[in-house]
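Researcher: Let's do a round of design. I'm pasting the structure tokens now; please hold your answer until I've finished.
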């Protein structure tokens, strides 16, 4: 057994349960460990990245790169070229598998969302958007990116779309001709729900774009649109929400095509004047 693995084995009696999990994985996979990133080792060991960092410091290393260097030097002494090629191929195969899993998950989310789609609610949402005096978008955390996307496309049709980024952006007065679109997914943003419900109580119309009818934003929505956002990791999958936003915008554009064309022409003139596009 090489020095790095011997060190791990000797220190196991003094390890925490989480550190033991890491140690057992490494000792069971000595020829694979040198090729693993800290994120991958954490995932395979079932612990956090921070736990991996504390583990290597516990072993006496300054950080994960130093630990990895020792394992790589160890394998160079043991593994033949053909074995190394085989290991690299296995790791590459697993990486490719993970990539395909992400795409397959996104496709399944879109398909499932389509199957459960409530066209009546979508038509109601389109009518609310078209007939509104002003449109306010409430989105927090990762869902903020969806809010920006929705505003970007609605700006092609309307001149009254705003994103509420902080308390200073909350309108002082709203009525039934104003529309608030709340975008909120698990893990739900408390501030997004609070702003959404507050504007609803002031008289605005509301649309919720969320992942479940159990979402805390739904009770304050006049129209609720649900989409699946489950990811293969801790990250949300926004493939289906983006498709829904595209569908809403296309439906709005079809009914407000003259406004869309005029705004696009004005935008293109601006692009040409300031030489924005390549």
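Researcher: That's everything. Go ahead.
Model: Designed sequence:
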């Amino acid at each position: 057994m090489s020095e790095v693995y011997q060190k791990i084995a000797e220190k196991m009696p003094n390890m925490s349960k989480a550190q033991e999990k890491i140690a057992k994985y490494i000792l069971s996979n000595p020829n694979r460990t040198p090729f693993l990133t800290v994120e991958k080792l954490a995932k395979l060991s079932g612990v956090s990245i921070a736990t991996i960092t504390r583990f290597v410091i516990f072993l006496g290393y300054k950080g994960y790169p130093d630990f990895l260097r020792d394992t790589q030097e160890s394998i160079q002494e043991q593994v033949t070229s053909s074995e190394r090629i085989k290991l690299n191929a296995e790791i590459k195969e697993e990486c490719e598998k993970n990539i395909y899993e992400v795409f397959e998950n996104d496709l399944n989310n879109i398909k499932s969302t389509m199957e459960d789609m409530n066209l009546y609610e979508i038509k109601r949402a389109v009518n609310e958007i078209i007939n509104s005096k002003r449109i306010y978008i409430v989105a927090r955390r990762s869902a903020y990116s969806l809010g920006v996307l929705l505003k970007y496309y609605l700006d092609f049709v309307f001149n009254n779309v705003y994103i509420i980024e902080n308390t200073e952006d909350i309108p002082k007065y709203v009525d039934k001709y104003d529309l608030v679109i709340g975008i909120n997914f698990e893990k739900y943003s408390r501030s997004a729900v609070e702003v959404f419900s507050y504007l609803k109580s002031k008289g605005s119309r509301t649309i919720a774009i969320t992942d479940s009818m159990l979402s805390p934003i739904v009770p304050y929505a006049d129209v609720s649109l649900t989409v699946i956002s489950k990811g293969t990791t801790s990250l949300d999958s926004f493939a289906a929400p983006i498709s829904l936003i595209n569908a809403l915008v296309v439906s709005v554009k079809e009914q407000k095509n003259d406004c869309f064309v005029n705004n696009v022409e004005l935008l293109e003139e601006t692009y040409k004047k300031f030489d924005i596009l390549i």
